Amino acid sequence: MPKPSTDSIHGHDYYDVETGAFRVPLYLSTIFEHPDRRTGEARKSDRGFEQKYSREENRTVRGFERVIAKLEKSQEALAFSSGMGGIAAVYLTALSSGDTVVITKESYGTTQDLALNLSKLGIKTVLAGPDTEDFIQRIKPGVVLVLVETITNPLVRVVDIPAITKRCKEVGARLVVDNTFATPLLYRPLEHGAWLSVHSVTKYIGGHNDIVGGAIAVNDPLDLTELWEFRRRLGSIMGPFEAFLALRGVATLKVRFDLQCKNALALAKYLHDHPKVEAVYYPGLKDNPYHKMADKLFLEKGLYGGVLSFKVKGGKQKAIEVLKRIRLVKPSPSLGGTESLLNYPLTSASKTISPAVRKELGIGENLLRLALGLEDIEDLQADLEQALR
Ligand SMILES: Cc1ncc(COP(=O)(O)O)c(C=O)c1O
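^ thats the input. predicted complex w/ pyridoxal-5'-phosphate below
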């Protein structure tokens, strides 16, 4: 079996016999002619779906999906116009009126926000966690869907996904793992019994802060069809141009992610010993409460993700000052791209989380989240040093 770095380059399996081209072309065409003019029957894609209209199936998008399936070691994958487009399709596929979904309290704010909004369709959302024991207690018989993140945001917790998977199996709930922060390099949820693995491709997989996209890895052909149908109905397929860029981005995932993780560990250590820093949250630090779990779960030893958070001494005012003073690092949301980004969770990913839950989680007013890019580590450290000073 090829290794992930090989699959991320060659996993699309595209080869054009006529021209010898082995890079997936950009099919911008919206429509595809029926091969049989009499019956009007559409062509079929390699996985048997009709390939007649690009809101449904598109060959450039297919190339990218094949790479995702190889990386996640899943049977299939679907690409979406955004991570949220994928998560919306998951909710609509799995949930009906009267159902209950359990979501980790520290999941991406809009993931929670969308689920909570489904109350108007009679769907109940239970926010649980953030730690494993509390999370498992809330997965009671009757729960239909459970959603966790491999690495949470902004406090970078690592929950015991195998234990959660076991509990989901006991009560017959489907487990969705948002694997965005870990990438398939650190964890492959389907290999451990999860139902689906979802990604915001906007982050590490795209990797260049120039596309918005999503992806879902799935094994069961019936689930694939149901998700595919919702993608078609919602009109949330990834655009061909985004898929073309996503293919280019994912080809370098391994080298980028390795460096981002190394940069994150180096800066976590530097901040840990910094006199102006109150606390650092990063599972790569030996004294971090999630260090052992990360070592147990993650497939690449010594890599703990490219995001860390820290609290600045002196409260909100000082944290905002750091945001104002950084130069090379950009004050911006998102993560996983070439640029290092510093972000104030209270006004971005955690904005939609209620103040009470934020307090419970420890998302304080002096918390900053740093998502590492690919710049030189000495330049990054110098920038943080001048901003903190
Ligand atoms: C963990 C996680 N999941 C899902 C999403 C949503 O992805 P997108 O912004 O591509 O819709 C985000 C966005 O920040 C995220 O951080």
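The mean pLDDT is 96.
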